[in-house]
Design goal:
Structural class: alpha/beta
Largest sheet: 5 strands, mixed
Strand order of the largest sheet: 3-4-7-5-6
Oligomer: single chain
Number of helices: 6
Strand content: 5-15%
Order of helices and strands: HEEEHHHEHEHEE
Distance between the termini: 21 Å
Helix content: 40-55%
Number of strands: 7
Length: 378
């Protein structure tokens, strides 16, 4: 179904959001190869949030725990010749095994932390190098940048392997925690055996204290490991989204910025598809008056500004074809406008915008001279 768009002045001017116009450094909403006013093309702003140029001190952005969980070795126990004494020695052997497991698990944790940080550092350096090159100017799909992107992707995948190993370690530490609790219960039960001497009780009391301290270390290790897993999971997810956006920047040869996927969004039933079209001017108009118009960076900046002000914003994307020219030409233009809208939709998704935040439709306009893709905020 065709929809007439008659607000021609609105299609070429003003970046508007919720009645509050962006001023001074607002992004020009009309993006084309030959913008109004005869300028040579839309200029793009500096990429927001880009990493600094590569340097040995570039930050990885990943922070993990620093706890080191080394148990104090258990004191040797003497045989007293009583059943309680025999039980104390046997339980002391169990404590030694538990401490050996804890020592190995602590060493594994420290190793995995170092491994995760190493991968994050290598990833950050690759991304910083890409952003530095994009900022300096480069060609679309530069092979050097594609290789660096692949290197960065490989480091994220290695980070995923480290995360899997952390989860395996977490299961092992959980087993140690169960054993420590069971050992404490056995020690307390042994103290109640008949015929236990004062020396037996003293040894069992020392053993109980040592087991309690070891159990406390196990619980602390488990807690910090759980936090590390959460941080690593969040880091990898966010950086993968950023890397997807960076791929779009490399393909266009222009810097964008961090993924927009992290901007909060809570779906609301009142935000029905198309509600922005009837009430406001387009946020962005992309005119396809030449093949592959340069719109990625300005589109990113416009959407980023919107989400900074309204994290729950959703968008209406409209492929607009000119009216006139006969039915055959109108059908051709309409089909092409829908394909161009699909292209812009893919661009938005590569920037981190979830498809459930975007509705897509088609329309014709008596004022459009060439095919346009219009983006509205709702």
């Amino acid at each position: 179904m065709r929809r007439n768009l008659v607000t021609s002045a609105a299609l070429a001017t003003a970046l508007l959001l919720g009645g509050c116009e962006f001023a001074d450094n607002a992004l020009l909403p009309s993006l084309s190869g030959s913008p109004p006013g005869g300028t040579s093309g839309a200029t793009h702003a500096g990429s927001a949030g880009n990493a600094p140029a590569v340097a040995s001190g570039v930050s990885s952005g990943l922070e993990l725990g620093t706890g080191n969980f080394k148990p104090e070795p258990a004191k040797p126990l003497k045989q007293t010749g009583t059943p309680a004494g025999q039980q104390a020695v046997a339980l002391g052997g169990e404590l030694v095994k538990l401490q050996e497991s804890l020592t190995q698990q602590n060493q594994r944790l420290q190793s995995l932390r170092a491994e995760a940080l190493q991968h994050a550092q290598a990833y950050a350096q690759s991304v910083a190098a890409i952003n530095a090159k994009l900022d300096a100017g480069t060609t679309p799909a530069n092979p050097e940048l594609l290789k660096q992107w692949n290197d960065a992707q490989a480091e994220l995948q290695k980070g995923g392997g480290t995360l899997a190993a952390m989860n395996q370690l977490s299961a092992q530490v959980s087993t140690s925690a169960s054993k420590s609790n069971s050992l404490l219960a056995s020690i307390r039960a042994a103290a109640g055996l008949s015929g236990a001497s004062d020396e037996d009780r003293a040894q069992l009391k020392t053993l109980e204290d040592e087991t309690f301290n070891t159990s406390f270390l196990v619980e602390r290790l488990y807690g910090e490991l759980a936090e590390d897993i959460n941080r690593e999971t969040s880091y990898l997810g966010q950086q993968q989204a950023n890397l997807n956006t960076l791929s779009a920047a490399i393909n266009s040869g222009q810097p964008l910025g961090p993924s927009l996927a992290s901007r909060g969004y809570a779906a609301a039933s009142s935000l029905a598809p198309g509600s922005g079209i009837a009430t406001g001017r387009p946020l962005v108009v992309i005119r396809f008056d030449k093949p592959n118009p340069d719109y990625q960076q300005p589109l990113y900046e416009a959407v980023s500004q919107v989400l900074a002000r309204r994290p729950n914003a959703a968008f209406d994307l409209v492929g607009v074809a000119p009216q006139g020219g006969g039915d055959a030409q109108a059908a051709l233009d309409s089909n092409l406008a829908q394909l161009q809208a699909d292209q812009v939709l893919r661009s938005l998704m590569s920037m981190g915008i979830s498809p459930d935040r975007i509705s897509k439709s088609a329309a014709t306009s008596p004022t459009a001279k060439v095919n346009e893709v219009q983006l509205y905020v709702r």
